[in-house]
Write a structure and sequence with these properties.
Keywords: Membrane, Transmembrane, Transmembrane helix. It is built from 7 helices and 2 strands. The chain starts with a strand and ends with a strand.
């Protein structure tokens, strides 16, 4: 039977069998890089990039091209660094279930700030211009879809984990978006007349497609972690 030779200094398996990349100096940097790129590739940052490019370019196409490219390449980079980080650890010793509450909360705060900044930027841009009802309706549909998804995430997390600490992460995002969105509604209310429902629905659908794609990619990558082969730095067969 073949045995595994460890090429990195893993903790003693008798006292610390399961290992996370944060436990290893060599794996820590790629894991943190993966975490950073995952934030950049989040739907919240997608919205922030789209809002910024929308304001700068004043058209519908450029924002989605720029934000979509950011989303794609950031997630590809995150996946690459994630595989590198977990590749230092033999499969049977990977602590894939460790909960990183501090990092998750920090990521939630950063993403919430990015999304809030996007909404604020759009509101300020709308406030100084004669904006067509279609544009406002599209933006309203997008923000509404985001808020509903975040509310659903809070409920699902609460039911699944039954712990306040876990609920805090999605709740941070929800509160930030709800507060900024309500302020935006007060600023823009009555300036454009009744919103076109079909355009608002279109905005929501675009957001849901982006979110669904991101969610499918994220779940797929999480499942792949357990199947990432240990690289030469982690193990070799004798």
């Amino acid at each position: 039977m073949k045995s595994i030779k460890e090429q990195v200094a893993l903790p003693d398996s008798t006292t610390h069998f399961l290992v996370h990349p944060l436990d290893l100096e060599a794996a820590r940097r790629p894991f943190i890089n993966s975490w950073v790129f995952a934030i950049i590739g989040s739907p919240q940052v997608f919205a922030a990039v789209a809002a910024l490019v929308w304001v700068l370019s004043n058209n519908f196409v450029a924002p989605f091209l720029a934000a979509g490219s950011t989303l794609l390449f950031a997630n590809l980079a995150s996946a690459w660094f994630r595989r590198e980080a977990w590749g230092y650890i033999p499969g049977k010793r990977r602590d894939t279930e460790r909960r990183l509450r501090g990092m998750n909360l920090l990521a939630a705060v950063i993403e919430a700030l990015a999304l809030a900044a996007a909404v604020v930027l759009l509101i300020l841009w709308f406030a100084d211009r004669a904006v067509s009802p279609e544009v406002v309706a599209f933006a309203t549909g997008t923000v509404t879809a985001v808020a509903l998804l975040m509310a659903a995430e809070v409920v699902v997390t609460a039911v699944r984990t039954r712990t306040g600490a876990e609920v805090l992460v999605p709740l941070v995002n929800l509160l930030a978006v709800a507060a900024v969105s309500w302020w935006g509604f007060l600023v823009l209310a009555g300036r454009t007349g009744p919103l076109d429902v079909s355009t608002a629905v279109a905005g929501a659908i675009v957001l849901l497609v982006v979110w669904g794609t991101w969610l499918a990619w994220t779940l797929w990558q999480r499942r792949r972690v357990g199947r990432v082969p240990a690289g030469p730095a982690a193990a070799g067969e004798a």
